[in-house]
Amino acid sequence: MSRLKDLQKNLFGGTTSNARQFGMIFTLVVIVLIFQIWTNGLTLRSDNLIALFQQNSYILILAIGMLMVIVAGHIDLSVGSVAAFTGILVAKAMAEWDLPWPVGILFGLAIGAVIGAWQGFWVAYIGVPAFIVTLAGMLLFRGGNQFIGNANTIPVPEGFRVIGSGFLPETGPNTGYNNLTLLLGLAGCIAVVWRELAARRTRKEMNAEPIPMWISILRMAVMVGVLVFVSLRFASGRVGTSFPVSGIILVALVLVYSFFTRNTAGGRHIYAVGGNARAAELSGVKLKRVNFFVMMNMSVLAALAGMIFVARSAASGPQDGNGWELDAIAAVFIGGAAVAGGIGTISGSIVGGLVMAVLNNGLQLEGVGTDKVQIIKGLVLLLAVAVDVYNKSQGRFSIIGSLTRSFRRDTPAAPTPSSGAEHEPAKTTVAG
Amino acid sequence: MSDVPILLEMRSITKEFPGVKALSDVNLVVRAGEIHAIVGENGAGKSTLMKVLSGVYPYGSYDGDIVYKGEVSRFSDIRASERAGIVIIHQELALIPHMSITENIFLGNEPRKNGAIDWKAANRQALELMARVGLREDPDTLIKDIGVGKQQLVEIAKAFAKNVKLLILDEPTAALNEDDSQHLLDLLRGFRERGITSIIISHKLNEIEAIADRITIIRDGHTIETLDVKGDGVDEDRIVRGMVGRELHSRFPDHTPKIGEVFFEVRDWTVRHPISAERLVAKHSNFAVRRGEIVGFAGLMGAGRTELAMSIFGRSYGLYQGGTITKDGKQIVLKSVADAIANGLAYVSEDRKAIGLNLLDDIKTSTVAAKLSKITHHGVLDAVEEYKAAEAYRQSLRIKTPTVDEGVNKLSGGNQQKVVLAKWMFTDPDLLILDEPTRGIDVGAKYEIYGIIQRLADQGKGVIVISSELPELIGLCDRIYTVSEGTITGEVARQDADPETLLKLMTSTKKMQTR
To answer: Where in the cell is it found (chain B) (predicted)?
Structure first.
């Protein structure tokens, strides 16, 4: 019994948002398992997992930037248009000026920075609400995309496509697996163990009550288990496929930005501004600089996402990035960010994005039409945020409640599709 | 006098909030056609009493009876009291800036014809009402385009539109200049001739003395006395004695100050209001602080103490107009809060929840928030140092919490205030400006906070305490400046500080002679 209590305390302990994040991970696992059973093992098959990552990496990259925008108390509606605008400019630059593709990528990031500076200027220094600035940006850059591309599709060169559809290459001895993917998984496992030990050391230095050893081991075992399983899956796909390059970019960004938001003064200032802007200002935080940074950073990431998408679809078109802003915003909110700002984590947003992605993917595998998928996604978003709001009004987070609530959150997702499950044969493609 | 009929009687009104008895057995008798003043220190319970009367706190949420026009009244909300002819005009005017005078006068009370608003009738009636309050303006003028004095008149006209019998004015002249105040007081005298009864709440005792027929004094939620201005020979000193009248002993820890040299000096400090640029919130203010000294800023609400303090703290309020700051013999220019912190200034705001703390944070995050550089190495925050710093303050300030991982929103007011103090002590300041450091916290915690303030002074820091509680300033400070209308009007040493002297200087508008 006391062990159960220990477990509860160490898994659910801390702040409400931590507990909520755990609830989300739990939800993700449940959704994956439900679909795994329901699709007769299709969900966790190598090719599906690879496709899932490739198709959602750009949304998850957007979610990273969107998390910081939302934590600071803003919103960015322009990311889809900025992505499309960057995509067409980069594609055109490479086609017409024969820009080598690495230069093309730098060029794209520079465009993102300029657009971000433009939007950040209005938000931070003039004080126009970000909602308005980015609504204008949404129209502006969507129009810009079509103006520059003449509403045509422009293909991109082979080298450039690597960032969207490339994989880790096959090297080393023939093990039947992709060796680099295995190495990546191994690095991940080492990192997990190292982090857990570092956390234990930190607690010791703080003279805080140590986490029971068996909980640390359990936590490491679960994480390592998941990592081993996933890397084996990615490594054992069709020859020529493995862990996608876009996934590597995503993982790198998640690591860098998680570190930034958690362990640096700059990151903490974003939370301070979102939590109480005036208090932050009176504590010496440079409000305008923080607001400018989050808006600018978002556009740079949107530019990157746009390029990855263009690389994946081998061409830039006028409809690229349509509705991305909503997917990114949904991922952030499902991942536990507060609507009023000040609360949220990168990892939570990624989990939120994955919940949406798995839902999308699983339902499509089962042949559920886009109409129904949208209805379900809408309900999931509404319920996830409603639970957050309800928890806050209750003041405390109850563990049992969080579990049952996580189940309840699933209920609309699970039974609804069963009604229209076997209408058409499974198709793996997910609409961009 | 006593044969004049009684319009309103509030009998043994008691109003409790969770943990606080705001009013205890308060009695108020208002006679028809008089101007009745209610005075008391900030927090004495004047506003609560008026909220009971006007139905903001509905019948049933308080004990006691309101007898109005000879009947026991049971107002369920403000509209009910307004129907009975009781209209309250708050210090913060309830006007909509982007609507016209007419629209504001009849807001919620629009004259109708066939279901639609009859603007012709409204405008005609508005002109009549405006004439009664002596307001000469086009009724289509927007509220934002007229001055505060005229806005006040619009509020009164609005009250007349509701057929007012008993007019309650809460600090009506606080925001007005001399001329507008005079006009308003004349107007009230005119109403008295016409038989309208007024209750006026004011800190400006000279005005009260000049206009009121009778004065009820409230202190700590009790009625102290009701004075008849003409009969009892009342003057300002008499009122002040009634307002303060409290023994001051052992509410403060024993302390022998160790006062050093002047190290912080502000000269000729002048700041404009952030929005209405012609208004000066600080006018040529001069003051100085010595090492180890606790300096008080006394002043009435709206006197400009907070504005003065914040404008010095990295220009975080208003628009800098002129003046110099000298610290340790060197002139310093503080253009931002970051500059101020870097130069050893700390400002603990009066509203810890609204602007002092991020209520989403936990204790350790709050403690280090104003100086993250102290726990940053090579750009990375050191969680262990953060924890240790917070833990040290938890112990030395005796913050009651199981761990420093607890959210600050879970703490009581006194403990939250200690976290704010810890946050600013963590910045290693030389000068701490504490704005209402004990507002809304209980007596025990106050005592502890006084102790912390004294310890800070003993470390050789200068401390400025802004407080609306005179006993607090008198008990705590080594020297007190009085502030009125953005100007320092006096300087009183500890041994000369008594409420009467201070209140007189606080209500004066003459600039202190520079030494």
So the answer is: Cell membrane
